[in-house]
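Q: what does this look like with zinc ion bound?
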Amino acid sequence: MITEIEPNFYRITLRMPYRLRHVNAYLIAHGKELALFDTGLNMPQAYETLIQDLSDIGFRVKDIKHIYLTHVHTDHCSMAGLLQKESGAEIHLSRAAFEEYQHFRQTNPTVQQLKKFYSRQGMTAQLIDLVIEEYEDIRGIIAEFSADNFLSDKEDCAFGNWKFEVIFTPGHAAGHVSFFFPEKCFLLSGDHILPYIAPILSPNIFDDDFRSLTAYLDSLSAIERLPVGAIYPGHGNSFVDVSERLSDIRQHHQKRKLAVLDHINTQSKTTYEISQEMVSPTLSDFDRFLSLNETLTYLKELKAEGVIREDDINNVLAYSGA
Ligand SMILES: [Zn+2]
């Protein structure tokens, strides 16, 4: 479904078989040319919808000259390769996002790293196999693409009369960027700021020192410094109560961090064990994996704050009160 937000600025909503059900791509037009922000999931149905949506406003895929990606999660980027093949569009993304994309393409080293990383968190072999299966699925969905340009933080970009600024917003994904349109005061936020849920934060399995929550909260502050009037997110409707939303998200993380701290005592426990204590036994395996990532996010912060200690016991990390 395509919606005109204002002349030459559109939202395209594409279905996907994941929990959030829909993903938004945004389109700006200048004369006969288009710039697309995120692409939707690489599925025949989403592709057909996109073709129809473009045709409804008098365009074709080959009119897409530029594709800007907020990050390389499948629901945002996986159709980029297909669209680039058909249109010759230039693809712009951050260097960190492209590195993440390349990890998806290097099966063996990434699978080895996944095993190493998650066994250090005390995860069961069965759950690690499930994570690898998920990873293989993702790998199969993302169409191969080449990067034409690496975006820089605070870079000024222009497409016809449209001017926008690249804002690095790591946290939800290490290479995440948002796009701010200063003349219009709106922000294309990708998955950095969503209207109803606090975006998932994941560890960087290649960088033990990456603290996704610290990065994420710094990225919220970077947005707060801008005169943002409206946010156009990757999922859900646009909204204008920006500072209220940022304060809700900050409170959410503070509460969750304290909930993890409640499970820390003198007994050494792995991330997996702590996360198991925090979820219902009927939760699906995939949700258990998400819960482990979430728990790990807060453990890293609590460790950096000096309130808990981390011990390496035979290559498995265990946490206890400091
Ligand atoms: Zn995402």
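The first strand starts at residue 2 and ends at 6. The domain at 259-321 is CATH 1.10.10 (Arc Repressor Mutant, subunit A).
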